[in-house]
Each structure stands twice: as structure tokens, then as C-alpha cells.
Amino acid sequence: MSRVLPYPLLALALLVMWLSLTSFSPGQVLLGGGIAVAAARAMAALHPSKPRLRRWQLIPLLFGRVTLDIVRSNIAVSSIVLGLGRRERKSGFVPIPLELRDRTGLAILACIVTSTPGTAWIEYDPDSGVLLLHVLDLVEEKEWIDTIKYRYEALLLEIFE
Amino acid sequence: MTAAILLWSVSIAQAMLVIAMGCNAYRLIRGPRAQDRVLCLDAMYVIAMLLILTMGIRTGSAIYFEAALIIAVLGFASSVALAKFLMRGEVIE
Amino acid sequence: MSHAAELPVWAALLTSLLLLVGAGLTLLGAVGVLQFRSFFERVHAPTLGTSWGTGAIALASIVFFSSLGTRLVVHEVLIGVFITVTTPVTLMLLARAALHRERAEENPNVPSRAVMRRRGSAPAPEDGAGDAAGTPSS
């Protein structure tokens, strides 16, 4: 199984995408299936590190939390742009020491942090595990360190390590 | 009635997207630095894609969707290449 | 827009609302790009358009075409997924490039490499011979 079709989920996702972009007919299923298998085998030739999902049940919780936070920070950044809440706004960099070492987990954390308006992932040092974050509305450094560490990192650690 | 509601909201949305594009174009010209210009170019790609999606709703045809997908893919590739160039001074190492 | 005449009222209202929300968020992001003072502040602005701006307009398209009944809905989900996955990659690369350029010019407004060491613990063994002795200054 693993030699013929190394990444079954990836191949299935590619096939579904192919069929949704074209139309459902036996010929398209055959063509899409061939491309999906070829792509999965090409992926295996790259030897990526296989992510180990330890507790995948937590993924919906993470997804819900991120969606909620993106809505919330969309509102926050919109009000900053509109100039509501008249007080002096200060932006700045926050260094955060991370425990997470799994590469897939770090990639997901990077996507979460950057796609949330108001925070941006700037740099990560794999030797020390320190992440440099830029925050648009920086009131208290501690608050952001706690948000990243307890709200996201703890959950990602449970999922991946 | 429903057609009127939809026509007005699509027109207003398109006007807002065009103004957004204008803001980004102004920043693209003003700069001040190369990274600002690349950031605006990337944002303009996304806004162009959204404009085409709204065009699809306006005309009710499915052809626009493919154009939107192609613009999204091209925008990603070109922005990544430009960011790489800013970092290293060359695109392919 | 004769094709929209057979659309149910709730679908038309929902599509309009989602379109206006999405376009409005994108416009706010663009105004932010114009308004913010430094590059690292401006990085935050386009994410308004790429997170819920794109999401809302894609949802509007899904609602519209599904209620018209002409085709399946998965198309716009593809655009949404693609934009949410690729935008962080672009912005991260761009932010790193900007940081690299600012450091190369020794701009005092960006944090130096020394920030990237773990606070509280002993400094990690140096791989370069740069600041082996004494406190790192740059």
C-alpha cells in the first residue's frame, strides 16, 4: 500500500480537487486519479518529514478557536484603522520562547499568527526556539506571550508531540 | 426587487474594491522602500481576484472563477519570487 | 442582472450582506496600508482583506451560485483555502526580507540578532566566532 500509494490522503484530496474543477465523468476520474497518484509518488520522492498526529481530535477545537480569534482581531484592527478608541497606539516586536519543535506544528502556528490581523510572524530561530512577533497594538508584552503560549502552543503541543 | 438589491450591493462592493486598489496603487508609487511596494503588489493581486469574483456574481457566469483562481496562483508565485529577491538579491539559488 | 430575478429574497440579502462586509474589510485593509507609518505596521493591514475579506466574498459567491442551482459549491472553497495558506507564506518571507534589509543598514528601530537568544538561560554555544567574549552588542 505505502509503496504504490505513499500519501493516500493527499492523493484523495487532489482527486477531489480535480473533479471539482472539471466535471464528474469516468474519463476525468481516470485522469485525475492518475495525476493524484503521480503527485503523491513525487511527494514521497522528496522525503518530507512525516508529521505525527498524536491527538487529531483536538483539530476542530483549534480550528474553531482560530476562526473566532480572526473575527475578533478583524474587528480590533478595523477599529484601529478607523481611528476609534482614541488613545496612543504603540506597535512593537515581542520575542517569545517556544517549546514547540515539530516542524508541521510550527508551520501551522506561523499560518495562524500571520493570518490573524494584528500579529505577524517575523523570524524564528531554530537553535534557541525563540520567535520574533510583531504586534500592531502592543499594550503589554506579557499578555501576548501568554496568548501565544497558552492559547495556541499548548494545543499544538498536544496535537503533535 | 431581488435583482435590484443584488445589483446595488454588487456595484457598491465593486466601487469599494476599486478604491482599495487605488489606495494600494498610491502606496505602491509612494514606497518608500521596495518591501512596501511588494506588499502592495501582493495586496493588489488579492483585490483583483476579489473583483473578478464579484464580476462572476454580477454576470452569473462560472467562467470568471477560473480567472480568479489563476490570478491567485500567479500573485502568490510572483510575490514569493520578489520577496526572495529582496532577501538574497537573486531568485533561484 | 436578469439571471438574479429568480433568486429567493433571503439568498439575495445574504449575498449582498456578505459582499458588502468582504469589500468593506478589504477597503479598510487598504486604508490601513495607506495610513500606517512603518513597514512592519503595514504588514498587518492586507490580512484584513485576505482573511475575512476573501472569506466573505467567497461565501457570497457560494450562496449565490448554490441558490441559483447552476453548479456545485466547492470552487470558492478552493480559493478560500488557497488564499489562507499562501498569504502567510508571502507575508512571512516579505517580513524576513525586510528585517534582513533593515539589519544590514543597522536601523535602530528593528531588534538585533541578540533578541533571538533565549532569555534567562545561558547563551547558546556560538557557531560563529563573532562575539565569543563578553556581552553581545549587535
Automatic annotation (TrEMBL), chain A:
InterPro entries: Cation_antiport_E. Transmembrane segments: none annotated. Its main location: membrane. The keyword Membrane applies. Keywords: Cell membrane, Membrane, Transmembrane, Transmembrane helix. The keyword Cell membrane applies. It is found in: Cell membrane. One of its GO terms (cellular component) is plasma membrane. GO terms for molecular function: monoatomic cation transmembrane transporter activity. It comes from the Bacteria. It is a multi-pass membrane protein. This is Multicomponent K+:H+ antiporter subunit E. The lineage of its organism: Bacteria, Pseudomonadati, Pseudomonadota, Alphaproteobacteria, Hyphomicrobiales.
From TrEMBL, chain B:
This is Multicomponent K+:H+ antiporter subunit F. The chain crosses the membrane at residues 6-26, 38-57, 63-87. Keywords: Antiport, Cell membrane, Ion transport, Membrane, Transmembrane, Transmembrane helix, Transport. Its main location: membrane. It holds the Pfam family MrpF_PhaF. It is found in: Cell membrane. It comes from the Bacteria. It comes from Chelatococcus composti. GO terms for molecular function: sodium:proton antiporter activity. Signal peptide: none annotated. GO terms for cellular component: plasma membrane. It is a multi-pass membrane protein. Belongs to the CPA3 antiporters (TC 2.A.63) subunit F family.
UniProtKB/TrEMBL annotation, chain C:
It comes from the Bacteria. Residues 102-138 are annotated as: Disordered. This is Multicomponent K+:H+ antiporter subunit G. It comes from Chelatococcus composti. One of its GO terms (molecular function) is sodium:proton antiporter activity. Residues 121-138 have a biased composition (Low complexity). InterPro entries: PhaG_MnhG_YufB. Keywords: Membrane, Transmembrane, Transmembrane helix. The chain crosses the membrane at residues 12-34, 46-65, 77-99.
